[in-house]
Specification:
With about 325 residues, the chain is α+β, with helices and mostly antiparallel strands. The protein is about 35% helix and about 25% strand.
Length: about 325
């Protein structure tokens, strides 16, 4: 079973928010495309795993573990009574070759050796096992979920380290077997992993405020050309009609990832949305959807949810007004 949801990477949410409010540079567009492709590969991995079934095991997705004061990110950790298997997911497309330890993809060199990445992540899990003075197996595989990916290697032992799309369902079926269980030992291993989980410390991107268009925009077409109603904003381009609360949640998401870990006050948020929603309504929505931090006469706010999608899942049933298609 999946222990946690796979959320969008911080970097993807940053570039999506940035793209909504300014024209991306060529390098930013390239980064957005690369990160999105990687995330889509992880979702495909999850979808295929779901179709096979995984009730017998414990699966952590997209977690950062602090092991011996070193932080490592894991795409997927599969836990059973036998131990831990790390799955590094690479959504590569096209022809890939490994020769003398050098990787090329579509005739371009890959600077990061996927096998070295896997060895490092597996090694850190072994450190975690040894520090906890436990006894369980640790192994890993590189997963290539895209069906357009072709792999060639001059070292036949490399095939034991990878799983291609053609073999992915069979690979997952080994975990959906009565002989593979998550009993007391798996629960013990799971507790060790959970105690090591930390927030992603590597996300340091910050937006240049002078580049950004402030205000609210349509969630369907991205237009900032909106007409104000009493409780809704209507897009003059596509006709989408979204309530004020939906717009506030989207803007809170943008603010969070564009100015990550920066203080958000009511006035700074009102400036960010260009005062498109009245002061009293913004105050009410901040109280509802943010944690308030008071320091003397000053208050700052932190978005309660991970992102906009998380917020709409958890708050839609409590919204007084609904959104309508144009």
């Amino acid at each position: 079973m999946f222990i946690n949801e796979r959320m969008k990477p911080h970097e993807l949410l940053f570039y999506e928010a940035l793209a909504a409010r300014t024209a991306l540079t060529k390098n930013e567009s390239k980064n957005l495309s690369k990160i999105l492709k990687g995330y889509e590969g992880e979702l495909l991995y999850d979808e295929i795993f779901d179709s096979i079934g995984h009730d017998n095991i414990i699966i952590y997705r997209d977690v950062c573990l602090n092991i011996d004061n070193s932080i490592t990110q894991y795409d997927s950790l599969i836990v059973s009574d036998k131990g831990i298997i790390s799955n590094e997911i690479k959504n590569f497309t096209g022809n890939c070759s490994v020769s003398n330890g050098n990787w090329t993809l579509n005739n371009f060199p890959i600077t990061k050796d996927a096998f070295s990445q896997l060895n490092r992540s597996v090694g850190k899990l072994m450190d975690m096992r040894n520090i906890s003075q436990s006894d369980f197996t640790v192994s890993g595989k590189i997963i290539f979920p895209n069906d357009t990916f072709v792999f060639n290697s001059d070292d036949q032992t490399n095939w034991n380290k990878i799983i291609l799309r053609s073999g992915l369902r069979d690979y997952f079926r080994q975990f959906n077997h009565p002989g593979v269980i998550s009993g007391n030992k798996a629960q013990y291993i799971s507790r060790i992993i959970s105690n090591c989980i930390v927030d992603n410390p590597y996300f340091t991107l910050q937006a240049d405020k002078t580049r950004l268009k402030y205000g609210l925009y349509c969630g369907q077409c991205g237009s900032f050309n909106l007409s104000k109603q009493r409780f809704h904003l209507t897009c003059n381009k596509c006709g989408r009609n979204e309530c004020n609360e939906t717009h506030i949640l989207r803007a809170l998401n943008d603010y969070k990832f564009l100015f990550y870990n920066q203080t958000m006050t009511r006035n700074s948020f009102l400036e960010f949305i260009d005062n498109d929603i009245p002061f009293y309504s913004v105050s009410r929505f901040l109280a509802k959807h943010c944690f308030q931090h008071k320091r003397g006469n000053m208050s700052s706010y932190t978005f309660k949810y991970f992102d906009f999608d998380d917020a709409t899942k958890k708050s839609d049933s409590y919204k007084r007004y609904k959104d309508y298609l144009g």
